[in-house]
Amino acid sequence: xxxxxxxxxxxxxxxxxxxxxxxxxxxxxxxxxxxxxxxxxxxxxxxxxxxxxxxxxxxxxxxxxxxxxxxxxxxxxxxxxxxxxxxxxxxxxxxxxxxxxxxxxxxxxxxxxxxxxxxxxxxxxxxxxxxxxxxxxxxxxxxxxxxxxxxxxxxxxxxxxxxxxxxxxxxxxxxxxxxxxxxxxxxxxxxxxxxxxxxxxxxxxxxxxxxxxxxxxxxxxxxxxxxxxxxxxxxxxxxxxxxxxxxxxxxxxxxxxxxxxxxxxxxxxxxxxxxxxxxxxxxxxxxxxxxxxxxxxxxxxxxxxxxxxxxxxxxxxxxxxxxxxxxxxxxxxxxxxxxxxxxxxxxxxxxxxx
Length: 354
Hints:
Elements: E1 6-8, E2 11-13, E3 17-19, H1 29-37, E4 43-45, H2 59-75, E5 82-84, H3 92-101, E6 106-109, H4 117-121, E7 127-132, H5 135-149, E8 156-159, E9 165-166, H6 171-176, H7 182-200, E10 206-209, H8 215-224, E11 228-231, H9 233-236, H10 245-253, E12 259-263, E13 269-273, H11 276-283, H12 307-315, H13 339-350
Parallel strand pairs: 3-11, 4-5, 5-6, 6-7, 7-8, 8-10, 10-11
Antiparallel strand pairs: 1-2, 9-13, 12-13
Helix pairs in contact: 1-2, 2-3, 5-7, 8-13
């Protein structure tokens, strides 16, 4: 194949596609295994796992147990695996420790700047990859890690404004279209990575994310200098994705007008598919009790709804009590594929442009 591999430290990913970590319960072991088996890198989202366990098990403990179980399911197949852990989680350091203990290959961390991440993994050889949304953020992370820990990121994921889920931009920037596009962000991040590579003594790969839909998109960013891409939305519409059929069907049914930006209780903008729950939650406070206390930035007394429960309901197919998160291009999806079919389609589309 003409498509180049992606190298992060001593890990070689044959096809330079990273499947984005999608919570709650969207990307688990089934999806991650299928992607890694096809030569990409599958990623488990750590947030919201363990909610099928007995409620008598404390939140922190069931989160730990469930994440370890998902990781082991992939590792037992002899496949590489990544895990996404959000900085905004109250049990952030706890879940990072699980990743180190379970010998995860790559740890991705965003939804806030992971400035203390290296101290939570100790001497573990796990590869650390911040998810950032600007060259400035990349600079802050590299400078902080260098000063505090004499360490540099093993790679950088730069996520643009067309991504799904929680977004690292101001709500107003996204609404009025003034947020920097992914091409600009990749260019800026490549300059930062280049600046620190000499100090690090190795390459710091830059991975483009957010709105990448076709193989031609992949080729465009590789030709710009990115070492790989991260994709989430396309992998939701696969047979192996861990969500309910109703969740996947919402992608097939969505029109461009059905995709909306909301201000999440996390305090960040989020891109979702409109459901009746979205309309209700924007207008009035929903009755709920906070069972999780899972997010540092969520004030349950002021929030209109519990986003953890809304996302869990959606993953289970209860779309009238939640909403699917998605990227801006979700409305373009018109069929469910296997991961094999999707990976083959993407690589075949990319190769003529490389």
